[in-house]
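TICKET: design request
STATUS: open
ATTACHED STRUCTURE:
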């Protein structure tokens, strides 16, 4: 069996087998065995996807330089690579399921399998006293298989097929506790998932109608031709529909409303997967739209950039203002997704500028190196921040799970001081918090530096000669209409959002590990907890922590190599640069960006958190975000549960009144009332005529034979017989025997006809 197909199908098969074996076993011994088996299943899955990555990377290394080989494979002959590494399952949904392997897919396949492996390790202790463990593991494995299907999908239909499976199976994570709050959060999650799925499906219809294909390797050229022929509006509509669905899963504004409550109500291992992996499936979809459906489109790139900026700023603000540990981490995920979307948007803007420069001839070649470097920074920064965010959120949500398991709450005032005298928990949380905050020498600094560099480089290019040359060449591009001040504002918001990340992570670290709980007895109980985490839980956290300093300390060796191998296919397929300049991450220019974010974070922490949230220290932390700004309650639910039914009710009443008016008019005109004809008291016209005729014949007979005539009332008798015969026939007609009889008659007539014509 092909290893890609095995990686996708194995979790489904394992989930069904484990469900069949353990669904009626609830003893502790059976649950321990189930936990071990799920760990083994995830380990096998991890080994399979790692073997695919090693084989593919080994074949690339044989071609020479890793960067060059990646450029060759991704840009020069993408169709050849796809043909060699594609597998299909015909007949599913009419279009079939199609899978393929590329460096990007390989990296995120490994990341997904790794995340499931460590969360199963963590769940061995965390879920041991939980109810319905087999149900959780069953849907967990199904979600793993669906996620693999998404990352290895070779076309939009396959991606949509597994995306919908993943949405419904992960719904069971949110509703797992079966509390009132869990049902409420799960309802929101499912509603957004269904609406998003319908939006993606509509986008698929539009794409297939305009391009005639859903294959990722084929859409690019057809999309370019479609845009050149004036079909961009349809592709914008398709991309907009799909952005709603994929953006909802990613947690992008404004379809992020499911995120805080779902993250809070789901079990900690599931929340870690929601943030670390499932959000990336949404980003993966948006990335494919940007590269395949609207390639080299500056308008779409600008839209994604602005959506990313709003997402990262709003998520950061909500994270600072929250007084709940898990909710803060949920909004942190939203903010970091905004950073990633900003990178995707910069890819769209810079690819347009790249193609524009190439079309200018020799004049455009002078600045193309700068555009290429900025584009490479956007591509690599996007991929690396997706990886970095996954690692840090695995650590943060697993440590939050330990806090909840011991303290029974996520509220900062209740868990305050829990981490004191717990060096392992402190070190893990500090590394992850500093990593996501972009502190130098840790992984988040590397990816944020690249994203920041792409924004600043694009801003400088807008101030250069590119615009003047494009105007002379008669081009009509988006970057010609953009003001450098707009990009400067984006840069400042980018750095400020980094400061917000540092502020809310400092808030969480101080609350857990520095401050003491107001309840002195509770603080003593927290400090006396030495066995707060099992060996399995510690092992899971250590495995997730290791890449954080590794990437940060050796960015060129680790981060750049990973980016070169997993570099997503860019729209610039016919461009290949054999020279790749090494990025110098620790120059003063790059360090200054991190320093600005750190200063902004310190200012926000002391001005907002210390002086506003803790205005009354004896009362502890308080949420600052106004309840009336709750988009889910006061916008989405108000619109779909109140405004829409009200509007539809009014429309229905209007339509009902119109129909009633039309009926009255017709009754008064075309279908006006008429005088009813004479109706017989009994029987019908046939029985009346026959009975009347017989009666007259008998009267004539009596006259001729000179007998006394006495009426026999034949008309009444025939009416009674007719009614009785009609009722009997209706009873027979409704019986099964009559139906079979008529079937036999029809079959006999058919046979007679066939014999006659032959």
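STATUS: resolved
RESOLUTION: sequence designed for all positions
ATTACHED SEQUENCE:
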């Amino acid at each position: 069996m092909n290893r890609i197909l095995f990686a996708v199908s194995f979790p489904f098969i394992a989930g069904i087998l484990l469900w069949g074996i353990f669904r009626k076993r609830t003893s502790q011994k059976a649950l321990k065995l189930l936990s071990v088996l799920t760990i083994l299943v995830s380990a096998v899955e991890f080994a399979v996807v790692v073997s695919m990555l090693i084989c593919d990377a080994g074949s690339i290394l044989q071609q020479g330089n890793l960067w060059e080989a990646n450029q060759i494979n991704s840009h020069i002959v993408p169709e050849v690579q796809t043909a060699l590494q594609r597998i299909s399952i015909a007949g599913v949904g009419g279009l079939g399921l199609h899978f393929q392997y590329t460096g990007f897919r390989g990296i995120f396949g490994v990341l997904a399998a790794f995340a499931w492996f460590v969360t199963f390790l963590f769940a061995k202790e965390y879920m041991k006293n939980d109810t319905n463990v087999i149900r959780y593991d069953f849907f967990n494995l199904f979600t793993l298989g669906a996620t693999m299907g998404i990352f290895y999908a070779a076309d939009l239909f396959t991606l949509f097929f597994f995306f919908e499976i993943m949405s419904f199976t992960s719904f069971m994570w949110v509703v797992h506790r079966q509390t009132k709050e869990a049902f409420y959060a799960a309802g929101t999650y499912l509603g957004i998932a269904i609406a998003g799925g319908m939006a993606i499906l509509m986008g698929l219809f539009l794409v297939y109608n305009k391009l005639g294909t859903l294959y990722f390797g084929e859409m690019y050229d057809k999309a370019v031709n479609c845009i050149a022929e004036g079909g961009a509006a349809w592709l914008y509509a398709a991309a907009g529909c799909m952005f709603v669905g994929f953006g909802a899963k990613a947690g992008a504004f404004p379809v992020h409303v499911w995120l805080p409550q779902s993250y809070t109500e789901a079990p900690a291992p599931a929340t870690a997967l929601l943030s670390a992996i499932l959000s990336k499936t949404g980003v993966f979809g948006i990335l494919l739209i940007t590269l395949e459906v609207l390639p080299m489109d500056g308008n779409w790139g600008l839209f994604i950039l602005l959506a990313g900026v709003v997402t990262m700023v709003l998520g950061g603000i909500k994270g600072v203002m929250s007084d709940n540990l898990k909710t803060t981490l949920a909004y942190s995920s939203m903010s970091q997704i905004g950073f990633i979307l900003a990178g995707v948007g910069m890819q769209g803007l810079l690819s347009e500028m790249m193609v524009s420069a190439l079309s200018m001839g020799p004049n455009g070649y002078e600045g193309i190196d700068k555009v290429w470097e900025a584009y490479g920074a956007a591509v690599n920064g996007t991929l690396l921040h997706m990886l970095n965010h996954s690692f840090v959120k695995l650590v943060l949500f697993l440590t939050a799970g330990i806090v909840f398991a011991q303290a029974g709450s996520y509220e900062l005032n209740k868990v305050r001081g829990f981490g004191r005298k717990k060096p392992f928990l402190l070190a893990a949380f500090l590394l992850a918090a500093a990593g996501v905050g972009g502190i130098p020498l840790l992984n988040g600094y590397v990816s944020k530096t690249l994203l920041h560099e792409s924004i600043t480089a694009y801003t400088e290019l807008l101030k250069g000669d590119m615009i003047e040359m494009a105007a002379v060449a008669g081009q009509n591009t988006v970057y010609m209409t953009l003001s450098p001040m707009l990009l400067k504002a984006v840069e400042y918001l980018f750095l400020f959002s980094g400061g917000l990340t540092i502020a809310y992570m400092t808030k969480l670290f101080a609350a857990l590990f520095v401050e003491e709980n107001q309840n002195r007895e509770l603080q003593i109980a927290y400090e006396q907890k030495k066995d707060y985490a099992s060996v399995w839980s510690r092992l899971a956290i250590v495995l997730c922590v290791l890449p954080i300093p590794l990437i940060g300390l050796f960015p060129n060796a680790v981060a750049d190599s990973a980016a070169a191998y997993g570099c997503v296919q860019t729209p610039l397929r016919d461009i290949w640069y054999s020279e790749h300049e090494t990025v110098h991450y620790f120059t003063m220019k790059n360090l200054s960006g991190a320093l600005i974010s750190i200063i902004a974070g310190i200012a926000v922490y002391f001005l907002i958190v210390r002086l506003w949230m803790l205005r009354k220290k004896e009362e502890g932390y308080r949420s600052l975000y106004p309840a009336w700004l709750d988009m889910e309650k006061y916008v989405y639910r108000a619109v779909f549960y109140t405004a829409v039914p009200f509007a539809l009710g009014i429309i229905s009443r209007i339509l009902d009144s119109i129909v009633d008016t039309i009926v009255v008019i017709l009754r008064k005109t075309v279908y006006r009332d008429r005088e009813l004809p004479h109706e017989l008291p009994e029987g019908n016209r046939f029985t009346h005529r026959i009975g009347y005729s017989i009666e007259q014949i008998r009267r004539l007979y009596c006259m001729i034979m000179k007998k006394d005539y006495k009426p026999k009332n034949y008309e009444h008798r025939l009416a009674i017989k007719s009614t009785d015969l009609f009722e009997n026939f209706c009873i027979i007609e409704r019986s099964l025997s009559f139906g079979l009889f008529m079937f036999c008659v029809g079959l006999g007539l058919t046979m007679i006809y066939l014999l006659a014509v032959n």
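CLOSING REMARK: The two ends are 53 Å apart (CA to CA). Confidence is low (pLDDT under 50) at residues 65-84, 568-580.
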